[in-house]
Amino acid sequence: MRKHIISKWLLMAVATVVTACSSDKDELFLPQEAPVPVLFTATDDDATTRANEERMTSPQMVAQAGGFGVFTYYSNGNGATDGAYGSPATTANFMHNQLVTGTNAVDPVWTYTPLKYWPNETGATAKSNHVDKLSFFAYAPYIAAGTTYNITGFSPANFVGDPWVTYNSPSNLPGYDLVYAKAVNQVKPTLTDKVTLNFAHALAALSFEIVDGAGLNLQKLEVFGWKGGIQTAGKLNLYTGDWSEITTKTDKTEVVFVKEEDPLPATGGNWKVIPGDDQEFFVRITFKNANGDMKVIPEMPFKEDFEAGKNKIIKITIP
Fold first, then answer.
1. What is the Cα–Cα distance from 29 to 138, expressed in whole angstroms?
2. Residue 176 and residue 6: Cα distance in Å, rounded?
3. Sign of CA dihedral 238, 241, 246, 248
4. Nearest CA to 119 among 87, 157, 75, 185?
5. Which contiguous run of DSSP H or E holds residue 307?
6. Where does residue 269 fall: left (phi above 0), alpha (psi -120 to 50 degrees), or beta otherwise?
7. What pTM was computed for the model?
8. Among 108, 99, 101, which Cα is nearest to 59's?
9. Residues 6 or more apart whose Cβ sits within 8 Å of residue 207
10. Residue 62 forms beta bridges with which residues?
């Protein structure tokens, strides 16, 4: 009888061990959620166009500037609600000015290194049962540091709030266009989905057309700020698209933009201007007379509204 009881307990113990081993083995082979890489596709905002100007398209971001920069904010939803951008305000804690480049300038596939993956807040390792989100803010042309393509700086890694870049228009060159995009409160997609960045223009442009200059050997056209002035530099908020800390040129003696050629063509310019209404400036034209002497045509004033993504062509009639 005693032997039978011992055998019974041994069988129960063996069954318990087998059950425990079986459970552990099942746990090890439970399907795990595959990591999803953060990938990008870039498009262009066709809502606005510029006459007489080649717009910066996705391929041009590769050919001209080697790609675009991305600031990414991670909201992990540790509070009472789902994670959301700006609640509370945070830093670019997931990507800071990450360079994203294309494989070619015709049909680019956008890549960057090191590759990052979407947060995987599921299962036992999740910090909360709320949804995590990533918010992306991009700009082009890309700069690593210093001043390149007329972009003079960007928000530092420890900056709390919306990311930004600063821009300063060159005087004697058309200057590169500045475009920006955002994709806010994005949740983890499937393996094949990409974050779409739809780039829009941040700048306006100023060009000229001389409609009555026949017989004059035109040499130079200069633009001066005047009265209300013309806006040439500022800080672009990559979330709102708004400009702040704007530099307005009002000095009547300082050349803001210049186009000089022998002879000067009847059309040209395409200088970049910070958007805004009621900007005032005047144009001065220099020509060469029959004796080879340089003569200056009196000041011609203008007052114009500048809209992002549009090229303002001023028509100049020489008296």
1. 40
2. 88
3. positive
4. 75
5. none
6. left
7. 0.83
8. 108
9. 52, 53, 267, 268, 269, 270, 271, 311, 312, 313, 314
10. none
pLDDT of residue 82: 59
Contacts of 304 (CB under 8 A, 6+ apart): 206, 279, 281, 312, 314
First to last CA, the chain: 127
Which amino acid does the sequence have at 119?
P
**Whether 317 contacts 216, CB under 8 Å:** no
User: Quick one: pLDDT at residue 9?
Assistant: 37
- Of the candidates 186, 183, 184, 146, the residue with the CA atom closest to the CA atom of residue 165: 146
pLDDT band of 56, cuts 50, 70, 90: low
3-class secondary structure, 9: helix
- Distance in angstroms (rounded) separating the CA atoms of residues 13 and 7: 10
Pick the more confident residue, 307 or 147. 307
**Can you tell me the distance from the alpha carbon of 11 to that of 155, in angstroms, rounded to the nearest whole number?**
69
